[in-house]
Amino acid sequence: MTIDLDLAGLSRRSALKGWFAAGSALIGNSILSPVSYASDRTLPATPACGEDIGPTRSMTEGPFYSQNPPEKRNFRNDADGTPVTLLGYVLNTACTPIANAIVDLWHADSDGRYDNQGFNMRGYQRTDGQGRYYFDTIRPAEYAGRTPHYHVKITPPNGRTLTTQLYFPDEPRNELDHLFDSALLMNVHPASDGEIGRFDFVLA
What's the pLDDT tens digit per position in 15-29? Predict the structure, then answer.
């Protein structure tokens, strides 16, 4: 049995609740399925474990990282903007979920600015026992030379940190950004109250 979710008719909270409560194995070919294969109902899939692509590609940290961010998954109180729930798995190359991995997220606000004095739009969490993570945040704006993007560091227990960036599909500035990499495109789908973005990190 599979459940094909029409995410545009669901709120981000309802979709997230279904992802955890029903178990992702029951959610078919929607954006919330264990491996986000493309279908008529979704955008092209993000690179996924099990495909012959290797680990998630690394990307420069950039100049705006702040050490010792707080443990936080909800950025929605930090700034106004289009709500985005960013979620996915952290996996190894054998497609086994990695529990207790640190997922450290930071990004610009809806005006293209970083908070370099505090920790707005900055925080980390740890994956659960099934390797899942999620953040409630906003869609960042473009700024000089850069298309909208998220910065992420993934650190597995007793492992090496992956530093990378995530991009939104169909952004006009993607191809003008010298750092843009299509292998780091999220699968983004509208919800009734914003957007849901999916990316599964595969660690070497």
Answer: 777 666 655 443 334
